């Protein structure tokens, strides 16, 4: 624990040191022990500076921004009476139409034209709106509407500053403080978390921070509170996980959460403090590029409503990230569907780099690893329509909130979704904290992972959201629920020093060619993800790019599961949209609808067929079955058709404390008649697989291999070998009694050795 806490302190100091070095020409101050930038004594300083005004004027006639500018002009208009029953209703401000947009644009016009009439109109309209807006005390999620009203007022305050009287400034400030008190984070902003949850979104990262900058000269308190919390909590947490080049809140909430991370980047930059984050922030959005499927969707993760008929796009974060970092790969994501939501179009107009080019990800490496605190891999066979895409997860930490308990899970897509995450975020069961959400969707049972069922195990309820105070949720045999009553992880200190650590990556790598790898390998220890019902759980993934048009890829999954009680039943899960066909030790899943034609064939090598109970679960009334009860959640939209309906469960028939699984998944088209033979290769210390021209070997007990050991391969032609679980150092390889590889160095990060050779007996010496 002390080591983890020390790491978090080091990261904070590194972050502060980096920021200070990059902003040496600007001033900083210490407030309550936290160093924060000092807003410059000039206006404008919110979202733009005086030096940006010529660029703003040019943008008004930039053809590339004509659509956005015209949309903003259209948003100036008031709603028709029938559009909204009460003009001051909070939905009016949430949707950003009418008076607030008109005031923003008039204030912007004043910066360019110095037309005092425009400034005066913006000031009067905005003050009237701020002072008369009414939000229901218990009217749903009002914080976003409140925040939007605050930033509209902040733009007018800052951009029309020299036209404000002292009395008007005070009226603005009084209104801002009154509005801030209605935010979920509270004022002072001490409520909720900074790592996940609503206080990691607009309230502090954009709304209160923006308002504080605007009114800083007259009322520094709001800025010091917002910036103080940001630099104390939000920034160090993100600088901890950004080097992994990924995010933790799933493919739906990534949009809003990462967007809000990018707002302080731009806000402080325009104020004179560039690059406040670790520069690895630039590559977080690459995860979207790797998840992108040929059908316009992405491999889903976390709380999401799976769909096929609507493209899944990330216009706003892609615009913010690509324009700041001048990244043409991310800009290609923006250009897929450049449609920024209404309340952020003003920022697209101000900040989008219209001269930035577009670069498709076609020349990026086909495999990508995201390290601590995640331990995730995505492997592809290409970037075109015929690509196989696979995701493999360990999960070193979980953050809760919109992240799922899916350590050890995998997904596969080829000509349609084949091995999938199941369930849906919103529907007839409700959304966040609904019975479906907390008893099935978020839980391990909804993912392609492992269950160990202790009939006496208790899982604590969330205890928050939706008023549900149920003390326990379904015992579905899955992974434990970290945090107090399964609450979201609030701070970096909580993440590192409480019970959110759930796994450890033991090995990872891909190659031998880093651009177009033959294999992608990930191994993790996910024992900590489960309760004391288990003593050891390890999973190894090997994704093979077979570079074969007929059968383009295969995935091998090897597991060691040791339960605390031999009577605790173990389940290996594979989820699908269609009913699986089971014949002997082979399970076939075919896509035949919606224009899809993919097929997955899983061969179970361990447990042995005589000891393997392979059954399908699902269909009408059992789509989301959890040990005796179904938790349906039917979405309102008719295009939500990827929720899943079926799974296979593989269990050893004979009770034992220690069990092993070895499954080989071949991925092909549903018209393919012949498959590669799959052979299990057993040695004294190893087990492995021979499939196509590939040989993959694991340690039989999942522990590091010591020398000597042998692997025997039969057949003809050349094979590509991957030997895993090796101790790092120099190894020799002998073939049929002759020295084959005199010295081969095995690295500590992957513990693997790859080479090509013909059939024979191979002996390995360290």
Structure characteristics:
eight-stranded antiparallel beta sheet; seven-stranded mixed beta sheet; 24% strand; 28 strands; alpha+beta; 766 residues; 17 helices; disordered N terminus
Strand content: 15-25%
Helix fraction bin: 25-40%
Shape: elongated
Low-confidence stretches: 1-24, 81-93
**Strand arrangement, major sheet:** 11-12-13-14-21-18-17-16
Termini gap: 35 Å
Give the integer mean of the pLDDT values.
92
Classify the secondary structure makeup into a structural class.
alpha+beta
Q: Tally the beta strands.
A: 28
Q: Report the major sheet.
A: 8 strands, antiparallel
Tally of separate helices: 17
Radius of gyration: 28 Å
What can you tell me about this protein's structure?
The protein has 766 residues and is of the alpha+beta class. The protein is built from 17 helices and 28 strands. An 8-stranded antiparallel sheet has the order 11-12-13-14-21-18-17-16, with no helix packed on it. The chain has a 7-stranded mixed sheet with strand order 22-23-24-25-28-26-27, with no helix packed on it. A 5-stranded antiparallel sheet has the order 3-4-5-6-7. A hairpin with a 7-residue loop joins strand 17 and strand 18. The longest helix has 22 residues, at 250-271. The radius of gyration is 28 Å and the shape is elongated. It starts with a helix and ends with a strand.
